[in-house]
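Need the bound structure for magnesium ion, inputs here:
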Amino acid sequence: PSRSAATRLVAALGAIREAVAGAEERLGRLDAVAGDGDHGIGMRRGAESAATAGAEAAAAGAGAMTTLVLAGEAWSERAGGTSGALWGAMLTAFGAALGDEAAPGREQLAAGARAAVAAVTDLGGAAPGDKTLVDAAVPFAETLTRALAEGERLAAAWESAASAATRAAEATAAVPARIGRARVHGERGIGTPDPGAVSFALIVTALTEEF
Ligand code: ADP
Ligand code: MG
Ligand code: MG
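Answer from helper R.:
Posting the output first, comments after.
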């Protein structure tokens, strides 16, 4: 197993934990508009638990895949809520695409991003435009895949993809929710971006610093 890949993932999980902790209140307020207000606390709990589990796994010699699978399991167990299950599934799917043996390359990272999106849509059944984190995750994975295929450096490709996710998350303000808890108060959420799309964009933006 590649220890250095796992060690870098531990740093990335730490960056996610910090980014989410710093946005906890804002995410909670966004979720209170048309949801139940727990998105900030759920994301903080999940990210904390994932960072701890990932660090323990890597310290025990786990490779990239095992580190992320264990982090994902910890996230969904501790976070609760819809987004907890979805983030657990995303980390697990991303990890599975990386494998445990070698340091993950560009292809695996793009494949991991696509696998994470597929895991969310399989589990939650949302499509782009439903006002969920899928609205940010799909353009993220597509932009990353395209930029890497065009030969962009990884850091630049990730940054373009994070920008696409941020723009897409902001654009969710314009539409009513069509799925999930917020669907019930769909019209009330018009003018406010989807909390899950915002937290997705925030996380991938924070990860830009890790390349
Ligand atoms: P809960 O709705 O259970 O309280 P959270 O508040 O943590 O969970 O997460 C809410 C976010 O989850 C939403 O803003 C949305 O982005 C995302 N979400 C909800 N349902 C789905 C779904 N079916 N597919 C994808 N994302 C979803
Ligand atoms: Mg909620
Ligand atoms: Mg809830």
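Comments: The pocket of magnesium ion (ligand 2) is lined by residues 31, 35-36, 38-39, 81, 181 (CB under 6 Å). The CA atoms of residues 180 and 198 lie 16 Å apart.
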